[in-house]
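Page 37, top half.
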Amino acid sequence: MTPGDAVTRAAPTDSELEQFRADGFLVRERILAGDELEGLREAVETVAARVVERAERPGAGPRHSLADGHHIQFSSHTAIQWEWGTGSRQIRLLKPCDHLDARFAALFGDARLVEPARAWLGVDTVEPFTSKLNLKRAGEGSEFPWHQDYPYWYVATGSRAADIVTAIVFLDDTDDGNGALRAVRGSHAHGPVRRDPADPTRFLADPSAVDVAREHTIEVPAGSVVWFGAFLVHRSSPNTSGRHRRALLPSWQPRGRPRLQELEYRRELVEELP
């Protein structure tokens, strides 16, 4: 395959599915390319600028401090997590984001993204659970420590959190310098990992419970996609480079279940986990 070509196949091969089940994640390079990829980058920048403008207008929703001292704000019908640096005006995360641009919403129905998710869950049909826009801006994008998605979903949907799969659609070349994803191969097979007793949020994984020898840094070209389930232990590097690392994260669940924003968030339920 030459640079710029896009992968068009949808369903994972038997060997891909075997690797997916063994590692807990699946990587496909250059799923998107050309105008399609550039259109998503354009949409990200347009949405980010619009959300920042609305969040800073008079009467916009106030910022709230989280247990770890970071800040979240509700505006534009999304939760904005601001970058961790003091006084930063950069968005770190938007959740959900698919209502902010039709091109984001279209990812939920793209067979190239859906079929690996459906195969991982082993169901006939999947539907949206939530969506995220993740921005690691050049020189400012913060790291994210060891964690699983499961505790974050569990406080809203209980044990059904195990039935959620996420794709990360990388819009930029991604490497260790600009915030690569780091995953622990096979960590999904052990269920909920012990949480970090020193973490004030009570959601992060205990580093002493992570088999760091099995850590794999996922460095991929723009347009690549990584799929993983709720139990995969992973983290991401800080962006110390002069390049952005932008990504869209649609998450699916079996058909007939409510979306995340329709569920009650009960943070205390995290204490039910190890």
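Page 37, bottom half:
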Amino acid sequence: MPGLSDLTRRDVLARVAALIGALEAPVRVGIDGPDAAGKTMLADELAVVLAAAGRHVERLSADDFLRAPEHRHRRGRESPEGYYEDSFDHQRLRDAVLGSGSPLLVDGIFLQRPELDDLWTLRIFVSIGENEVLRRGIQRDGAEMERLYRVRYLPGQRLYADRVAPRDRADVVVENDDPDSPGLIVRRGEPGPAA
């Protein structure tokens, strides 16, 4: 499991973009990770780097496939099981991914769950610690959301980690506690020198 440390964000983007650029069709990259990990930012940045290299990719976000609140919260607004089991319309997301004829970068939570895992030709997991999830989540969503992070989102992510072990299964792990100097673990593709 080659690990790369002391990299700049630009280095990480270049290395991951090169991995994506080397994939054979269909190119469907799932960029997974906990809430507020930086999945959307990473996917958007990778799309720019790939476009600059002459490789067009489409972007999708799992957040565009949220179920209606009455379905998402049917187990209760604070239920971690409800967060993991009921938040997304997996069939609509599958249909959108499979219906795309272009190389595709998809960001979202829970992307390696059994209903979606077979979609991806490359699995990227953006990793941050729980304290950083909480800090960023409150910064992004407001202090009034702290309770939901503590009772719904973080426990829902633990359920996912226990059931699926997404970090361990990912082809690439971006350790993103410090976005300016992320760590990189490459398990598949061109690993580069080990740290």
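Margin note: The radius of gyration is 16 Å.
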